[in-house]
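Hi support team,

I'm opening this ticket because the web form for multi-chain structure prediction keeps timing out on my end. I have pasted the exact lines I submitted so you can reproduce it. The total is 873 residues across two entries, so I didn't expect it to be a heavy job. Is there a limit I'm missing, or should I split the entries? Thanks in advance, R.K.
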Amino acid sequence: MDVLKYILITLCLIWTGGMFAQESSFTAKAPATVQMGQQFQYTIEGNERGSIQLPDLKNFELLGGPFQSFSSSTRWVNGKMTAETTASYTFVLRAAATGEQIIPAAKVKVNKENYETNPVKINVVGSSSGQSGRTNANGSTISSRQDQASTVEAEEQPVFLRVLPSRKQVYVGEQLVTELKVYTSVNTRPTGAMKEVPYEGFYKYQLEPDQSSSRENIEGKIHVTQVLQRHVLIPQKSGKLVIEPFESEWTVPQRIQNNRSGNALDDFFNDPFSDPFFDRVRQVPVKISTRPVTINVKSLPENAPGSFTGGVGDFSFNARLSANQVKVNESLSLIVEISGNGNIELIDPPKVDFPPDHDIYESTKNTTINTKGNSVSGKVTFEFPIVARHAGKFRIAPIQFSWFDPNVERYKTATTKEFVFSVEKVDGTAQDPKVYAPGTIGEDVENIGTDIVDIRRNIPAFRKIGQSPLHRGVYWITYLLLLLAFIATVTILRVYFSRRADVKLMRNRKASKMAKNRLRVADKARKSGNTEKFYEEIEKAIWGYLSDKLSIDLSALSRETVSEVLSTTGDHEELQEELIRIIDESEFSRYAPSSQKSDMDSLYADALKLIHNLEQNIRLK
Amino acid sequence: MKRLSSILLMLLALVKVSGSQEVDSLYLSANEAYSEGLYEAAIENYSMIIQAGFESADLYFNMGNAAFRSNKLGYSVLYYKKALKLDPQHEEAVTNLGYVLKYKEDNLDQVPELFLRKWMRSVYHLFTLKTWSLLSIVFFALLLLGVLLYIFPRRMGVKKTGFFSGLMAFVFFIISLTAAIERTQEINDPDEAVIIDPSVVVKSSPSLSGTDLFVLHEGTEIVLNETISGWMEIRISDGRMGWIPEESLALI
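Hello R.K., no limit was hit. The queue was backed up. Here is the completed structure from your submission:
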């Protein structure tokens, strides 16, 4: 059954081939770049078998071919059958001259029909150092310490790795992209899984590498290249940062020229994966490592604004409050968002001046990172929880955020608006201070900051510079005036007191005379029989005398004052007794009935004698 | 005491030197500049008052604030000291001087002053010069009154009171007059200064070729000894001496 089907399909193919013979086409292919002296394949492909007539290959050597291969396929799609045949003819050529070479169109003859291929342009480069190509390809190092590599002779410089930074001069915190690239001229693959390059001193993000491979000309040699790893790096410190050599193991096919051991079985077991019967190639592990790469990391300029918190890149910045109105003991939060392209994860929260007297908790940080494309971008969110503790209106001063933009090489600053939130009182029951401050009722007034005392704004009393009150006449004139006033006072008082003294002296001198005058009046009254008047005049004479003599006011005189004053002037007890006796007698006689009246004559004489004696004995100062 | 102070005020009104209208408006505009943060302009306006020949403790106090705000530490120390010289009891000036001195670089030991000298200084600094001169007049008047009381009344008690109060008044009169003279000298012939330059090298002799002794920084207070052709011999609080150029300091 199967056999029958096969025959049928083949017949169909042949038939269709005949049907579409007119639409045959042939294309020629060759690598775009080849190295002089090196073999390469020149392939003509078509959908028909035919005989190839090569053009005149001026600068190429034909080494072999054509090697033919055919394939055909038939498909049924929606009840329709399509059949395809491919034929390829491969020639092995070698370039004999450098420069841009063209292989002209080749002719293909199919069933007496002639077709032409396209001409092929080939860039032939000079060989590196030696024709045999035994030297190491530039950039690669084959570890000679490796045992197997020392015993096996490399037929080709096979494979090398490189770390390629996108830039070698960056600022701290600025991004750069590095690629780990393999260059190979042989069929190779890494043994085991590749590790990641440990970029020390850098903060790294892995990027998805482009899987496709390409051909590159490295100093005249053609290599197939492929990017193995891509990273975004952010240098963490300034200075020359070296990306240390990164080592990995690769298997390299090695053609065995001589069976040195002479034992085919040994070879077979040593290298069980190569086919000892086919091309006598075995896979040899080779340790290769990258060259060290130095990145010159510049430190950020000195003039960083105070609000700089480590951001390097291109950012946008905004902030908002989660609520504008809360009640006491409720919480709200300030949310600060920084997004853009740069070292998002390394940014510290910007400084915020919160109103004092509220509980501010440590900010939480939330980062989302996007590593698409060739850079790291993302968003970082800082949330500052605030618990309102007192009612009122509060403001948060505008928040400033500064970052360094390496593209323009200077600092940039963004400022938000001022935030205002109000806190409402809650009803008495809920307002329990213990809710937020256990064990403390009442607080000390704490210093939030210190500063100098503000200026005095009232206009002061200015004084003339260099002057002193002592230099002013007014000062000394005041003394003079005071002194004059003193002297005047003293003089005036002196005069006053001396006058007063004069009056006393006069009265003193006239005292006995006045008393004698009064006594004379009394004597007249006695003679006229007016006894009452007599006694009255006697009393008056004595009291008046004492008043004048002792400088005591008449109204202030009494027996006691008189005796007191007299006792200060000396020992006059007899005189006092006499004085009191006469006064008592006259007072008594004045109001007594006439029968008991004392003798007026003797009283008169006694009074006269008393005044005389007083005059003699009292010497007042 | 109230009555005394009211009498003093009346006398003050007699003695007071009233600044002109212009000086007052300069002062107000300087205050306004200060409030707007234009500290340099404020200092300029305040200085114009001084150029016009007027001064006051408050004026110097404000200048000290403006100087501190415009980062001139030396000048702010200078002006606060000047304010305190005119009014040793100016509380704000004492507070701000203490605050500002925290920013000073030089920490110097203090050679203890003679007790008597220190005590006398603190007595002199109890009042302003004006107060002292008024007090001297008041005590003189009290002295005369005491003499009168002693001379005239006959009674022994009054006489005794007059004698002792007169004696007291005499002592206080001497003290206040001495204080007034002393303060006048202190204000008009200052012997203290403040370093104005950010840093200045103190030399061993009054010439640039002198040996460098030590370095003083802005805001340090010094005492002056003598002046020779642009150089001043200074003494710092720990007793060391040397010469510095005249222009790197300002007299208090």
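A quick check on our side: The helical segments of chain A are 2-19, 147-151, 264-270, 473-527, 531-550, 559-568, 573-591, 600-617. Let us know if the file doesn't open in your viewer.
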